Amino acid sequence: MKCSRCANENDKNRMNCWFCGAILPKTNKAIGSFFFNFEYIRLNLKKLGIYAVVAGFFFYGFHLIELEQQNEAEHKQEKLDMQRKLEIAEKLREEAEKRVQLANEKVDQLPTNPAQAPTVIPAEMPRQLVKPILTDPIDAQIESIVRQHFAADNNCDVEATMSFYAGGIVTYDNISYDKEGLRNIKQKACERLPGYRKYSIRNDSINITAIGNSYKIVDYTLDWEVFSPKLQHNKSGITRVRIKVNAGLTPPKIVSENHYKL
């Protein structure tokens, strides 16, 4: 009986190979004959199974290595992207700080006390433009008050800004507020835009119109530019401002303030 493992001949009635100990088949038919050698097939299937398991481990290992390399590359790219974003944010912050510093230098000379009555407020305007001379003393006083109010509001001095409004109910952007409610509006506006902010009256021009005997309407165009924390860059625009002043009070007080974006 020929052993299918070591190919040595054994006695016909032996059940195990004398040489290697393998189980001998019950038939002596050669491999590839009409009858299958099931023992040979079983042994080779076992080997194939081992080979398949080993190959599977190798494939799985290579797959894990490939995934690890891919994850490492993605993580490295994310770090580079984050570093680039931080560098851009830092540059924007430095630029905003420089602009805030320049803006603060420009408004340091602006009055915030309503008792002061300057005749000229610094503004970005062509040198050749000349403001019209107001002949009505009340109009001159109201212009001074409006400019002081603009300077205080621009400088986020909420207490000084509030001193220019009349007592009781004040209309702000077509909504009625008491002074405490209006104070909260002004305070939140300053908190919402804590960085760079630049406001200027276009051509330094203010127009005053009388309504009856007691009220004056003040109109001017506002150019503005602010740094938006949400957008992370500056945005600008033009707003028409209309202020209603009670000229019958001493001193005159603002009773209405409305803004219209152009």
Structure write-up:
The chain is an alpha+beta fold and 262 residues long. The protein is built from four helices and seven strands, in the order H-H-H-E-E-H-E-E-E-E-E. Strands 1, 2, 3, 4, 5, 6 and 7 form a seven-stranded mixed sheet that branches. The termini are far apart.
In brief, what are we looking at here?
The chain contains 4 helices and 7 strands, in the order αααββαβββββ.
List keywords for this structure.
rod-shaped; 262 residues; NTF2-like_dom_sf; alpha+beta; seven-stranded mixed beta sheet; 7 strands; 4 helices; coiled coil; 21% strand; transmembrane helix; 41% helix
SSE diagram, text form:
Layout: H1 38-107, H2 137-154, H3 158-162, E1 169-172, E2 175-178, H4 179-192, E3 197-201, E4 207-211, E5 215-228, E6 233-246, E7 253-261
Parallel strand pairs: 1-7
Antiparallel strand pairs: 1-2, 3-5, 4-5, 5-6, 6-7
